[in-house]
Amino acid sequence: MKLLQQRKKEQEMAKRNGAMREESEEEKWVHDESVDYKGKVPLRSSTGVWKASLFVLTIEFSERVCYFGLATNLITYLTKVIHEDLKTATKNVNYWVGTTTMMPLLGGFVADAYTGRFPMVLFSAFVYIMGLSLLTMSQFIPSLKPCNMKICPKSRKVHEVIFFLALSHISLGTGGYKPCLESFGADQFDDDHSEERKKKMSFFNWWNFALCFALLLGATVIVYIEENVSWGVAALILTILMALTIIAFNVGKPFYRYRRPEGNPLKPIFQVIVAAIRKRNLSCPNPELLYEVPKSEKSQGRLLSHTSQHRFLDKAAIIEDKYVEQKNNPWRLTTVTRVEETKLVLNLIPIWLSSLTAGICIAQGSTLFVKQAASMNLKLSHNFTIPAASISSAAAIGTLICVPIYDKIVVPILRRVTGNERGISILQRIGIGQTFSIIVMIVAALVEAKRIRMVPNSNTMSVSWLIPQYMLLGFADSFSLVGLQEYFYDQVPDSMRSLGMALYLSVIGVGSFLSSFIIFVVDHVTEKNGNSWIGKDISSSHLDKYYWMLAIINALNLCVYVLLAKNYTYKNVQRREMEHGGCSDELEIVP
């Protein structure tokens, strides 16, 4: 009897050991539909996470140094070298920034549908470096230079053509570069592995940290070289930096996890809408009766659970008895997961619209804030004067202070208090950022009112008065921009993640266009009284009133945003959770 019991225990022990070996083997590989550079299932220990993401952060850092080195001082170049007036220069900067941040919509779509993210990053990097090369040529080749004098009374037309052509190449390169690079970096973390998922949440924080460190370097060192050495030397440095980091990015190729393109990401959405319209006369059944593929099938990726919003779309997943062949016709029958993905896209629209005011506030930092600085005392000491555009580095310092404190101190405390892996939900984080944006515009209005009172002696007012509004802008970015990055990566269908990052960038792009539109409307309305709020130069303007108006717009928008956030339903993922001790199937709402 004892012998039988001992054998039974040995058999149970053997089963447990076998199960543990299977679980260990399962954890060894990454089963999130990514592949390694050989096209095989990635080995967890040698691919992805920070070892791969550091290469991605490096090339992002160099690209942002290039971008901010140009963008923060572009209005100075347009007014001093090309001799555009304040209104025209501000509009052109906004148009360029807007175009640069709208182009990712095209690049993200092409990457998700056809090319994949890694090839798109390489192609876009080539286009980007062509733009930097043209910019360098326009400063060194005598026939392409603005003029043959040190101070140009008027720039040559050929120089303007080459200069704007270079900016166009940079915009086009950014179109494929930005949405794919960030989503490619986030792809290095497995959503079904609890430890890697937490690291991914930190990834977006440190991504923004690297971005702001690049802003600090671009707005100080690069701008200083542009103002005190030459624009040509600055452009040459940026071109070399970009070329070196592209090489470094390729060195990391064996460490990356790659996602294959899944075809047109918009097609399944149209299929759901068409199928729902075809079945509009049917009544919605119990959600358990709706069509879904078995979990064992890998063709569809992660499955989403049913939610109660937008119930009309549920009709697309109703199985009709009279159509036997309907399972092979996605225009007649779609899965619950496809229906839920369509709901996710519909949910994005109001959040995207209510986030545009953040883009409008950001646009002020590279345009009107810079012209404010140019009219003030830029001396930090008797022997050292900073370029006007370098004051924007205060925003980067604000973010560099805020992000580590939030990620390393605040989030762990909030995790224990709220039980949320992120500490607070994504939309709560964005809402805090929008609150900071209101404070930014109020402080900017108060500082500008003080400057106006000192006219014509405003050049005696220290530029350090602008530091608070820039640092607050950095705090706002730490919450709103990082939150938007997380939102548009996590809350879109898995097949649309590059396009999701493009939608995040479009918030900044459309915000820039809206800023130009608001300037046009405000100028048109206020100049009728003979005293335009935005005149030909900073001295004849009343930017304090303009900033108060933006503060009111932001406050009203925040009220709408809070209502939307309260009623928002997050992505409901059926996740196969990988823990250190094994794995389990669970349902998770991603907040």
From TrEMBL:
Stored SUPFAM superfamilies: MFS general substrate transporter (SSF103473)
Residue intervals passing through the bilayer: 93-114, 120-141, 206-225, 231-251, 344-366, 386-406, 426-447, 467-489, 501-522, 546-565
Key word Transmembrane present: yes
Membrane topology designation: Multi-pass membrane protein
Any GO CC annotation of this UniProt entry: membrane
InterPro entries for the chain: MFS_trans_sf (IPR036259), POT_fam (IPR000109)
Family the entry assigns: Belongs to the major facilitator superfamily. Proton-dependent oligopeptide transporter (POT/PTR) (TC 2.A.17) family.
The protein's name in its UniProt record: NPF family transporter
Annotated source species: Lupinus luteus (European yellow lupine)
